[in-house]
Write the structure tokens for this entry.
Amino acid sequence: MNKFRERIRKAIDNEILQTALDASTKKLEKGAAASIRLHPDHVERRQRAHTMRETVIADLDNILDEFITNARGNGFQVHRAKNGDEAVQIALKIIDASPKLIAKSKSMVTEEIGLNHALEAAGHHVVETDLGEYIIQLRHEKPSHILAPAVHLRRQDVGELFQKELGIAYTDDIPTLTEAARQALRQVFINADIGISGVNFGIADNGGICIVTNEGNGRMVTTLPKIHIAIMGMERIVRDLDDLALALSLLPRAATAQKMSAYTQIIRQPLDGQTRHLIILDNGRNDLRETELNDSLFCIRCGACINTCPIYREIGGHAYDTIYSGPIGSVISPGLFGDEFAHLAQACTVCGACEAACPMNIDLPSMLLRVRAGETPKAKETGAGLPSSVKTGLGIYRRVALNPNLFSAAQSWMGKLASTVKPNTPDFLPIPAWTGWGYSKDFPRPAKESFRKQWRKREQILGTQTSSDQELENQVITTQAANPDSPIRTFIQEATALSTEVIPVSSAELTEALISHLQKRGVEHIQTDAVSAEHFENTAIRTQAEADPNIAVGITQAAAAIAQTGTVLVLGGEGKPLTASLLPDVHIAILHTRDIHADLESILQLPAFASVPAASFISGPSRTGDIELTITLGVHGPRELVVFLVDG
């Protein structure tokens, strides 16, 4: 606990950190809140999501068995790991002893088990490819946030780092820094022997996995290398595609204020010539199911509770000294890793902001109190991490608070104490420095009247009219519940807002329009899928299906689109190379107006969707916000997305 206090004081004294945290967490929280308000039925969705997660965790053994059976039937090689050491050994055995280049997508569960260090110790070269993770890897740091690993850094810090590590001229221009990372990591993707990713959701009834990213690196590491290893916490399961649609309607909004992330992949099978491994990790999760902290397994790692937490906003992630920080980290860190992290729950005001922000409606405040009470799988005492003097004081307070007469008398005494403070003095009392209160916050002067007395006066003045929590939530300002626009118009509006260029054409004009568009760009060689290639037969434009990093334009058919999010769906499989929508600088998607659907749920029910090896939902060009949360287009995936919208 003393070391925790030292880290807290160091964080509060760090003016650069305070500036970065103030700018970033508020921006994330406000953006998420605004995005959530666009869902007229957000309250009902949260309740459904909570029930969905509750049902899955309660029946986790059977649902996991179903998932594993189906995943193996799809061609995945599935491995179970009881703990982190076992997971690491499985990964090392898959990778083999000879040194390998490993391209890795952001994954908190691999941070949890220390996978990078183990692979590097075995002689392998591991490169984090998410921009934020890449930055902190170069700085030899842990991530400071579940979602935004480098949220504690300013653009100037990244500029100095890239000058030192990448040899570029110093700049604090964020697009230039992002481009430097793109160029540095391009060959890593092309040459990687192994790709490693996390998993957002496993889908029990079809054995697929879902991965949600923005930069394109997640697609790169799962598509280009011949061996892909996915590592998944055993609780990250949904029963079916309906559950997945519900989760995906909440995750990006709560995490990054997006209606849908730039890339949502659903992978069911290995691609041609590829091997896919899936490592399912326990590492204490089963033990949590037997405790009062069971509901922490509902978490989908969106980071919303962290962004809204007043404690995290002051001290940042590194002060917690654990992979998982903030409110959720203060529950799962002691739950998974032991009593030495139980003191983290003391850094909580029990304000309830985390519960209000959580898209899964998890009662985090109650679990934080349970951690304080020693209700963790490895707890040895109540109030772990607290000094004996504090425990004694809390014991006395508990006795007083449980006795109405004693509590009322104590309130009266505090009121009399407050009345002795001279007028025109600060609204706080001087407290000895050794208590810790005077360092970062003052002890407020007690109210002269108890809350009950003040409330009774309020009732006399205002009456007893109050609003329930449900009524207050229903007063949230939303957009129109029913969109009067057609799906086509809505798609164009939403896609354009995501920096997608939409070009309406008739079916008769399509071939000529495509050729004209390429000629204006000076492009003569493209990568295409089999259907798109037919438009260029007997023309000067050469086509190929094979991936080539030197090709500037890729053209694919869009199997469908989502109107309300401006998203196009690209399917993988025979004659449908996913790399055509991934490697080139420009991705052109051919979309027919008849294939535009209102929402994700309707697309997931399409017969064509059920049997494909892989599918990618694409919402605009690749993007990142990992440097000061400034949105920058064109990270690892295409810099541009152009949709030819075909009518007829």
Remarks:
- Confidence is low (pLDDT under 50) at residues 464-484.
- The first strand starts at residue 77 and ends at 81.
- Residues 289 and 548 are 48 Å apart (CA to CA).
- The chain has four domains: 1-38+291-386, 39-140+157-167+177-283, 404-462, 487-647.
